[in-house]
Amino acid sequence: MSIKGKAYVMGAFEHPTREAPDKSTPQLHAECMRGALADAGLKKDDIDGYFCAGDAPGFGAMSMADYLGLRNLRHMDSTETGGSSYLLHVGHAAEAIAAGKCSVALITLAGKPLTENRGGPGGGRGGPPRGFGTAPEAAFEMPYGGTTHNQYAMCATRHMHEFGTTSEQLAWIKVAASHHAQHNPHALLREVVTVEDVLASPMIATPLHRMDCCVITDGGGALLVTSPEVARQLKRPLVKVIGAGEAPKGTYGGKVDLTYSGAVWSGPKAFAEAGIKPSDIKYASIYDSFTITVLMQIEDLGFCEKGQGGKFVADGNLISGVGKLPFNTDGGGLCNNHPTNRGGITKVIEAVRQLRGEAHPKVQVKNCDLAIAHGTGGSLGTRHGAATVIMERE
Amino acid sequence: MSEPKPAPAARRISPPAVSVETEKFWQAAAAGKLLYGFCLACHEPHYYPRSFCPFCFSERVEWREASGNATVYSYSIMYRSQTGPYTIAYVTLAEGPRVMTNLVDCDFKKIRIDAAAKLVWKPSEGGPPVPFFTLAP
């Protein structure tokens, strides 16, 4: 496939300001978006792809997507290559459009180094600070001591309130992971634990105990994705990508709903592209930063009905060879590892092992020809990026 | 018998970064008023405040003052803290938006979803006061 002729640049806007002490940087991004939409004759909700680089305040595309009220995104890209980023974005946007991943891609750039270098009300000395502190939401969230633990925990509190989910049910997720980790010589925690062990571990952020939380480890991982031609020249089992979906979820101007994750959007897109349904999946890698993360994603991906996740994960239903949905057979983030506090790559790696038949024999799923890897990055309790990949053994 | 633990130092409230877009919010905070954004085009309230409506993208937004009455949407008591337990929460303002906050100056064991909460202000370190909530009596 080529991008030749597959995409058009239909809106373009250059902000007229050269000095903007009266605007925030996010505000300038919004004004540029407004200008480009007007130029093209499109509306905000037509936008389904968003691209930004290091000038966008906050955390990748997520803070800005939430700030801008982009509710229909199905493709994001925060590729950062300095001043050339936006040229790459055009190419990437064309690729995404050619692949049917989005149809209206917004690319924004904005900043105010002139004002910021001068200091004073609209700026600050020493150039723009980077990271969370500059995000448009920062002033309204950072004073409250939010961490991954207590933000995910608020999702658990609400899930328990709405659906009657219990700490015992959440504990079963850790128990299943530990059953798998005992066979992984590299796993940080190899001891099999019980529901009682989880409930007896210290409370971290109600209702999550220490054993509801993933481990902290060093480490890493890498993947090579190739063309079919290259793949066929290699002497490894063919693990084919057959579907992918992604979506951000945010706090939506105060319409916060903690009962679901972005998997409600990324999952169905991936399944539709793959042409399969959740019940076809033989093995699932599900991001397990916390037990509640697993439970909500399982519901949102369609492995059970919303609110039924607690019943679904109980009694060993996630244990390979025991239950209906073998998950995280390497021990996952809960027992094995969580390199750089980012577990997305290990989710793909274990799914590849399963599809190749190279998982540990005690946890290898028989005839494993379809696997899903799904992750939540950022915070389940504020804004996050959900990503689903479905793979098939050819 | 172990020595009693010294009382943990109070949690420091970092000063919120004030931008020109949200300057009015923090000026009002200094006067004890909690503001939220309201769209004159689609009549939706929003929070955190912006210079435009995050729902319909209109720039016809105005500041409105919240009553300070709210109900607890969700919460978590944080024990992994060097300054003692604290409670993060989302509360639903009487005016509609759900906002992140801490529930302070109350018995954490009495916190329940849907409990009534009311606005209190706490000083930040060298910045404007920050809105918090406590359980309503």
What does this 3D model show about the protein?
Chain A has 394 residues and is α/β, with parallel strands linked by helices. Chain A contains 13 helices and nine strands. Chain A has helices spanning 25-40, 60-68, 85-98, 113-118, 148-163, 167-181, 195-200, 228-233, 263-274, 291-300, 309-313, 332-336, 344-356, and strands at residues 49-51, 75-77, 105-107, 203-205, 208-209, 239-249, 283-286, 370-378, 384-393. In chain A, the strands form three sheets. A four-stranded mixed sheet of chain A has the order 6-9-8-7, with helices on both faces. A three-stranded parallel sheet of chain A has the order 2-1-3, sandwiched between helices. Chain A has a two-stranded antiparallel ribbon with strand order 4-5. Residues 121-130 of chain A have low confidence and may be disordered. Chain B is mostly beta strands and 137 residues long. Chain B has one domain. Chains A and B meet through helix 1, helix 5 and strand 4 of A and strand 2, strand 4, strand 5 and strand 6 of B.
